[in-house]
Amino acid sequence: MTALHLACKGGHLDSVTRLVQAGTALDVKDNNGKTVLHHSATGGHVDCTVLLMQAKATNDICDENQKTPLLCAAEEGHAEVCKELIDRGAAVNTVDEELNSPLIIACKNQHQSVVDLLVKRGAKVDAEDVRGHNAAFYAREIDDQAILSSLESAPPVATWDISKSLT
């Protein structure tokens, strides 16, 4: 773990700024495969996350469990970090090694604000994990009516019928 990893984990913006300006590598992984952006996102450090993204840290890089910084932020309920990552190109429907999407993870952890953001940004409500369960399954399992309502109000995802384009 580098000094930049530690600064990002603790949300120490001044230290992060100095280390980034000094040219510290941004995509170096620690022993768990996490980059500085993973640590910043997990900790909910919006300013550090924005700074790292402006410095061109890789947004959709995966750790050893195939988790991206967006998945980490969604798991911890950091809606503002999720918003910043998505605004800067993070894949809203990325999945980890168990096919958990940010939406499924947010539902499992009852993070309403993250669910609302992800639905608004086009998350696939019907995406399933390796067990064949979608976000609504987990919301029903914990009886979270507010999250279920958000999922039910999701706009339909546009699909493109390739067979029609071939004629």
UniProtKB/TrEMBL annotation:
- Alphabetically list the UniProt keywords: ANK repeat, Repeat
The entry's protein name is Putative ankycorbin-like
Pfam families in the record:
Ank (PF00023), Ank_2 (PF12796)
Name the source's superkingdom: Eukaryota
Q: What is the lineage of its organism?
A: Eukaryota, Metazoa, Echinodermata, Eleutherozoa, Echinozoa
Please report the residue spans annotated as repeat (ANK): 1-31, 32-64, 65-97, 98-130
* InterPro entries xrefs: Ankyrin_rpt, Ankyrin_rpt-contain_sf
Which SUPFAM superfamilies does the record associate with it? Ankyrin repeat (SSF48403)
